[in-house]
Design brief:
This protein is an all-alpha fold. It has one domain. Helix content is 66%, strand content 0%. The protein contains 5 helices and no strands. 13% of the residues are buried.
Length: 119
Amino acid sequence: MEVVNWIDSPERNGASVSARVDECCANIEALVIDWKMDSILQDPMTPLTVRCLVADHYMNIHALIIGLKRLANRTDNTHHVDAMTVRAARKVVNTLLEFEASPATLDGQLDPSRYISAQ
């Protein structure tokens, strides 16, 4: 979290934050690719427990990108939402929707408590 500390430090001396945050976020996105998180989440052979763990990390990583971009915008006094921020937000939402639509549970059975009873 060097970037957050740098943003808050007096060493910054009014320098633009966006460029450094962009570089940091690009590195974070590269880690997601290196770790093949998308592939793990999409692989039907991945156990649900592993998918849940990876999905949690995946969403937190993308939420971090969104947060860093918002912090940079506020610090630089801009209101620009770039493609990386939109992409990160979409990945969080898509991951949530995929898990909501997935009928699997830990034991592979449907969980009736997730559905409204017709009675």
